[in-house]
Amino acid sequence: MSALAPQRPVELSGAEAEASPEHDARIFKQVTDLFLSNVDHLSESQIGAVDGVLAHLVARVDAATVVSLSDALSTLEQAPLRTIRKLAFHEHPNVAAPVLKRSERLSQADLLEVINNCSQQHLLAVCDRKNLNEVLTDALMRFGDVNVSNALARNGGARFSECGYATLVGRAERDESLAEKLGLRLDMPGSLLRELLAKVADVVGARFLTAPRPVAKKNQGAAVAPAVPRPKIDYTGALNEIVALNRSGKLNDGIVNRFAVRGEYVNVVAALALKAEVKAEAIEPLLDSDRMYGLVVACKAARLSWSTTTMIVRNRPNCPPATQRELDQCVAIFESLLLSVAQWTIRFGSDRILGKSDSLPAPAAKRK
Any idea what the Cα angle at residue 122 is, between residues 120 and 128, rounded to 5°? Predict the structure, then answer.
């Protein structure tokens, strides 16, 4: 970096001697601009020289000026280590946030030190990292407030220990927003999902049971086919046939199971609609891959067995195969829901499923 030597070190050494805000800001800007414009051509020793200057000036320059450096360094593989640490521990959360959220130069030990010693705003920034292991999430929950718990629950890249998940479920009993976020997580153990449903109010459980949820990614390298809009289907004929089967006493688990195995999902939708006492248009969206919970609730409300429900879930048209974790979650929901709660959820959640409402009316009374 010829632009930095030999005259630049002489000028930089004046940062200590000429201690004025204007001088510090001028040197900080010069070094920052020089580093960012030459970073791909610098040796380790040159980066180290810049690191010493920037790390020294970070605490002496106005926070608003330093934010742009933090943002620029947050995704840089060659970011100077001492400077990154200074930014991460900066007393102003806006300065620390970019590197806490994105920098791979921070070690786990660095992040744990931040979690143990810095503000809740610093912890919230850590919560937004793309990947968080169990050690970090345990520490964040130990020192974080309710906002930290919610931020962790909505981060799909956060991984939780068994103790960590149990802690979140315990907190969700008093926090409806947290309960809804937890219910939508793909990695939620079935046993804890069952416990969560037992702890929260019916209306809270109904919200996440009828909401879209993320879909498990099967193969990161495979091309993902674009979603094809589902053609509008007239269920009149299928409903007439299902009504006739019901009147003759032939609409049972076995025949619905066969509908699913044969891929006759017009008949599956019609059967669920009749047995759960909702419109077919409220059942149809549940066949989408992100509505698996709602489909299970509809099957429960229709008094189907888990065996038939599994067949319906496994054979949904144009959907990726359910993972074992997803099936564990589904059986937990199926077994924990009372019939009356499932029926209330699917009937009064019809507008929410169809996107006509964001809320559900509360049930008349808690069901025993």
Answer: 105
Contact 298, 341 (CB under 8 A): no
pTM for the structure as a whole: 0.81
Structure tokens, 312 = 């319906």
Q: What does DSSP assign to residue 229?
A: P
Long-range contacts, stretch 156-164, CB < 8 angstroms, 24+ apart: 156/185, 156/186, 156/214, 157/129, 157/130, 157/131, 157/132, 158/127, 158/131, 158/132, 159/131, 159/132, 159/133, 159/134, 159/187, 160/134, 160/187, 161/134, 161/137, 162/189, 163/138, 164/134, 164/137, 164/138
The closest alpha carbon to 95, from 113, 71, 118, 73, belongs to 71
73/90 Cα distance (integer angstroms): 14
Confirm if 55 and 80 have CB atoms less than 8 A apart.
yes
Per-residue confidence at 203, pLDDT binned at 50, 70, 90? confident
* Integer Cα distance of 95 and 90 in angstroms: 6
Cα 324–chain centre separation: 19
Beta bridge partners of 158: 132
CB atoms within 10 A of CB 37: 11
Report the C-alpha gap between 99 and 95 in whole angstroms: 8
- Average the pLDDT over 275-299 and give the result: 93
pLDDT in tens, 85-113: 999 999 999 999 999 999 999 999 999 99
Residue pair 208/183 in contact by the 8 Å Cβ criterion: yes
Long-range contacts made by residues 59-62, C-beta under 8 angstroms, separation at least 24?
A: 59/86, 59/90, 60/19, 60/21, 60/24, 61/21, 61/24, 61/25, 61/28, 62/21, 62/25
Q: Left (φ > 0), alpha (ψ -120 to 50) or beta: where does 249 sit?
A: left
Please give the structure tokens belonging to residue 95.
């300065």
CB 157 within 8 A of CB 136: no
Place of tokens 């065996």: 307
Rounded CA gap, 7 and 4, in Å? Answer: 7
Report helix angle 176-183 to 162-172, nearest 10. Answer: 140
